[in-house]
């Protein structure tokens, strides 16, 4: 795989040319910034920028003013190769909080190891309805320790409105959901993204995550996608490398939370649209 060429293609197709990630979301380009705007239950943030030192601070201020005016938290999804080189420091100085850094990994489907069968006693179930979405959300809460009401809403809406744009699976031990993940398909590109892979702590280290990666990779191949993209944690990176993924950059979520306006009447929480980086990871 041509690493530099693949990274440039990723930036062009999935960032500069981003598409809305679900019903009700829209993608806007303003100057050298591409952002997604969604409801309070969706993902709001900057997916791409091409800035220089002279204009970076003004562009940051513009996005803060825009999303604050909507009463929304938002994420600036910063990649390690973005310009200027001190963009992360500028975001921090402007009031953003950095989340955990992850590794952008991309694999060419034809070169991946896809023969990972489920461990004994584990079966993989496709998710197509509300009951399946509830299982995915339950796993998410146990694996990551966070509220998953946003995931229930977002995944169900996507399965309902455009079921061909997402593949979701859950791994069951008997009737107990122990791992879950999804794959988002981007029509018109060669990329599919692997997101939300999580395993309940007691079931980690048994090869279930690897199984769900291989399952989704085969589904991507069947649909004609060439590349799989993952924002990998330090825990999942070694597994993905063994499957044939390559590390091409890093990605760090910088989250901005608008301050509450002074209360002069009935209380109104203007920060209820919480951006959850794990929604895209």
TrEMBL record:
It holds the Pfam family Acetyltransf_1. Its EC number is 2.3.-.-. The keyword Transferase applies. InterPro entries: Acyl_CoA_acyltransferase, GNAT_dom. GO terms for molecular function: acyltransferase activity. Residues 122-262 form the N-acetyltransferase domain. It is an enzyme of class 2 (transferase). The keyword Acyltransferase applies. Gene3D superfamilies: 3.40.630.30. Keywords: Acyltransferase, Transferase. This is GNAT family N-acetyltransferase. It comes from Streptomyces bullii.
